[in-house]
Amino acid sequence: MFSVTCVAPVNIALIKYWGKRHEELILPVNDSISMTLSTDELCAKTTVTASESFETNRMWLNGEEVPFEESSRLQRCLNEVHRLAVASGSQKVPPTWKLHIASVNNFPTAAGLASSAAGYACLVYSLSRLYDIPLNEELTTVARQGSGSACRSLYGGFVQWHRGALDDGSDSVARQIAPSDHWPNMHVLILVVNDARKKTASTRGMQQAVKTSQLIKHRVDQVVPDRIIRLREAIASHDFQAFAEITMKDSNQFHAIALDTYPPCVYMNDVSHSIVSFVHDYNERMGSYHAAYTFDAGPNACLYVLAEHVPHLLSAIQKVFPNDLADGGTYLRGLPIPK
Ligand code: PMV
């Protein structure tokens, strides 16, 4: 019997991935950039055990069994890992041995906080250790086939997922832009507005967007390439002003595309919109950008803020939103804020 346990953190996109050009291979229509939180914050923890005596592959997510054999994405990740094991000549675990996989999140799965990104990154990384295959950028192509954004969680710090040009997806890889200690005073506050599951799953939302949104074509061709260059420069030079503006504009454009989808996908709610207004008012009062918001496919806000501005921003949030945030509402780089 062989067993491996790993943790992988959540990543939050600054330039969003939205829309696929190939469904099964999960090839995106545009590049994206994210920041990975550190592993003692929001993360998934996975134990993979291989044994000659297991009769079937089985998986438990937060203690509940999920139908492993029915999930084409899980199967695809496992097949890819087996392929890489054969290619690298690794014979540590015979490919016929079945697996038992147990994965837990240290945050509510239902809160829509990129749980699939951390989950698939953790699964693929654990499998890579179990089968002893090389850690290189090809592994990101395996995580990508579990959940697109998962490829970015294999690295810490700031990460770019390159859309690639090849039909087989071999160049659709994630690469680190800057390591996690590059911008040590960059913090993320997560405001949990609502921890219910999102109404339109991202797979369906993306399919509909690519089919029906006119704005997405403009975004992919005219907007994202330039934003990627400018955000990389902002990260390299620790330019929070440029970083904040690009991040907020990209979140807004992603949600504009969701609304331009027909029928529309509405992910933000009234509280999300008041957080947007609050951040703009707050920045205006401060005379420069002190906070930047971004929203994924749900109503919860992620606020980027430099460490020196956290206490002031937090007290302003708690004054303006005393009752609007879900229980335990605010996380500082993933840690609940003491009341
Ligand atoms: O990887 P998925 O299918 O969970 O899609 C993620 C989509 C966004 O979170 C909205 C954007 C992103 O780049 O992470």
TrEMBL record:
It is an enzyme of class 4 (lyase). It catalyses: (R)-5-diphosphomevalonate + ATP = isopentenyl diphosphate + ADP + phosphate + CO2. InterPro entries: GHMP_kinase_C_sf, Mev_decarb, Mev_diP_decarb, MVD-like_N, Mvd1_C, Ribosomal_Su5_D2-typ_SF, Ribsml_uS5_D2-typ_fold_subgr. GO terms for molecular function: ATP binding; diphosphomevalonate decarboxylase activity. Pathway: Steroid biosynthesis; cholesterol biosynthesis. Signal peptide: none annotated. Its EC number is 4.1.1.33. The keyword tRNA-binding does not apply. One of its GO terms (biological process) is cholesterol biosynthetic process. NCBIfam families: mevDPdecarb. This is Diphosphomevalonate decarboxylase.
